[in-house]
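Severity: low
Component: inverse-folding endpoint
Summary: output formatting inconsistent between runs
Steps to reproduce: submit the following structure tokens with default settings.
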């Protein structure tokens, strides 16, 4: 397994190189630059814009700018944000913790909801509980995250006032610290995490249900029934245990999906994470921040895929990762 991990990391290097070139060229072809609209033409000489563009190397050939950027990135220096006037690594580090905790809570809610519903649906397939859960699953599959969020925000944030809208922590709880700070952060994360979880559970529920239904018709289950093994023991020891093996490998893919969906989710809920930072950096043409975030997301996606393979290998040692 260690050889597989090393091999995947080595394969990641040329992938990241090709992706970085593509992203850099894409940013170069976008209209405008980071200085557009940031200097008031009524108070600043127009030629000052040109001086700054020459100073920052905006008119250099693309391969010169890319070589300069990737050379610094390899050393961990992604430049400075034109809008925030701070190093890119510092800005991302400030937002990364918010995205991490939101993603962790979302994945936890996904499995807390999906596993019981999937087991219930498979155990009582073609019965009223299964039909009700299947209706929810198909409804969740057909509902975009933004549509569900636009329904939950007015209901729970404004009408009922159960959850706050925007931000990651209450300023008063931030000054108090301790348990007040933790509960405030959890309170701010619950609604966006629940929104993402309700949409993401559908696929795990349907997959787990299909696995349970298939295992109910397998030969070893038929043999256990013929020997008089109690039905509860058949489900607990033979069906559920085997059906949960591939579901465990979905953890890495769930993390990947949560991170990719954080761009839309954090923007809708005004949650100060990496996704919201990415959207604002594109809007402000703050390309050093945007390029660094895209590379980071790509690395996390590949890492999540590798994590899924490793978890599957741990829960089922009979499998080999090729």
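Observed output (run 2 of 3):
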């Amino acid at each position: 397994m260690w050889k597989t991990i090393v091999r995947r990391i080595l394969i990641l290097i040329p992938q990241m190189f090709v992706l970085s070139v593509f992203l850099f060229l894409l940013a170069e072809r976008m209209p405008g630059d980071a200085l557009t609209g940031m200097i008031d033409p009524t108070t600043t000489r127009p030629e000052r814009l040109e001086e700054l563009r020459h100073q920052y190397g905006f008119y250099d050939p693309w391969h010169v700018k890319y070589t300069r950027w990737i050379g610094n990135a390899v050393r961990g220096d992604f430049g400075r944000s034109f809008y925030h006037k701070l190093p890119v690594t510092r800005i991302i580090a400030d937002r990364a913790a918010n995205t991490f905790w939101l993603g962790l809570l979302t994945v936890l809610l996904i499995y807390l909801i999906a596993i019981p519903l999937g087991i219930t649906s498979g155990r009582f397939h073609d019965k009223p509980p299964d039909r009700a859960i299947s209706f929810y699953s198909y409804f969740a599959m057909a509902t975009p995250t933004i549509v569900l969020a636009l329904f939950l925000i007015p209901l729970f944030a404004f009408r009922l006032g159960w959850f706050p809208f925007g931000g990651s922590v209450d300023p008063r709880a931030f000054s108090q610290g301790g348990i007040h700070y933790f509960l405030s952060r959890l309170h701010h994360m619950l609604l966006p995490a629940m929104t993402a979880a309700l949409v993401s559970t559908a696929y795990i529920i349907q997959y787990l249900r299909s696995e349970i239904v298939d295992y109910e018709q397998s030969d070893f289950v038929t043999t256990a029934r013929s020997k008089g093994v109690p039905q509860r023991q058949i489900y607990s020891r033979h069906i559920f245990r085997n059906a949960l093996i591939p579901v465990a490998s979905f953890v890495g893919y769930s993390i990947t999906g949560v991170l990719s969906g954080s761009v839309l989710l954090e923007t809708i809920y005004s949650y100060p994470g990496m996704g919201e930072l990415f959207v604002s950096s594109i809007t402000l043409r703050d390309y050093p921040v945007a390029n660094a975030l895209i590379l980071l997301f790509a690395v996390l996606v590949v890492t999540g895929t590798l994590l899924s393979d490793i978890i599957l290998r741990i829960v089922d040692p009979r499998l080999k990762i090729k």
